[in-house]
Predict the 3D structure of the following.
Amino acid sequence: MKKNKNKILFIIKLFLLPTTCCLLTTALIGCATVPAPSAIPAYSINGVTYYPLVSLCDLRGVEMQYDTLISTAYLSKDSKRVNLRAGDALILVNDSIMHLSYPIDIYHGTIVVPKQFKEQVFDILFPQAASAYKPAPKEKIKLRKVVIDAGHGGNDPGAIGKNGLREKDVNLDIARRLRDLLRAEGVQTEFTRSNDKFVPLSTRVNIANKSGADLFISIHSNANRSRSLSGFEVYYVAPTISDSKRAYMTAKSVSLNLKNAVISGSSQDLQAIIWDMIYTNSRAESIGLAHSLCRVMDASIDANILGVKGARFQVLKGVRTPGVLIEVGFVSNLNEEKLLRTGAYRQRLAEGILEGVRKYSQEMALVEVSSR
Ligand SMILES: [Zn+2]
């Protein structure tokens, strides 16, 4: 009963305020009529996709008045009006009440609206004008398959932050987000672990090598005794011994399993030469991928970009496809631990990795064309 009363009061407020709001402290924001030339940022809050309202309004030239005292926004364009309030799933659309499945929210100090509002209300009420800006479609990722390796798991939690954030959970969540993004691009994915279980490094390497994937991406979170250290970095495999010696040793221990295996039964020397080629190529490609990832992340997250490093990570050492190990951030740094706890930041990291992979796949395509 009390809830209904509150609701009625809120509705009355929503109806009345547009005429009285000028008496209150109001903020007039986002009234641009020129559509912004960039895509709308999206956030994942408790698994629901949200968009900043101000960005939507900018894009469609919708006027937005925001009353900071009661966290209520008033949208208008031509004769259409929408009133909505942060924390409430009830909205007014041209003076009719509508219930959303998820409430309007505040994120990073700005009002955000669930995807349902964008699709079922905003896009219908304020459609994109025919002449409006359309972002150029992104070039599809030209990779067939990617193996995603979420570091640690099960009884191996990896690094643990001061406030209890466990590396294994962060890694798996980003891995899942990356999988969804890659699938949406039509790229097949395979996990080395899909849940919270312990998988030995040798098994991870085997999964990667049997997968026939074009890329191997291992996701980790960092820790350091110095709590001030923070940032994003990418490692590629650095050989511990000369590539040719390593190739010879591999040829001795593993027999090449190539399609149309003209070399099956051939000498170990010949196999070593082929392994040498595989190692040299995949290392160069791994470095290329690592640089693409850092360039994209530099533009998309505020974190320090610590750069590309070579390392002798066991998980990368035996992997024959181009591969990188990404340290997405430091759980030992209080600020980064807080960020890494949020779905929105993990989503941005996953999207950044996706764009790094896209850049890499474009560069690889260029190399292929120019070497023809
Ligand atoms: Zn780790």
In short: The domain at 2-125 is CATH 3.30.457.10 (Copper Amine Oxidase; Chain A, domain 1). The chain has ten helices and 16 strands. Residues 151-152, 158, 167, 220 surround zinc ion (CB under 6 Å).
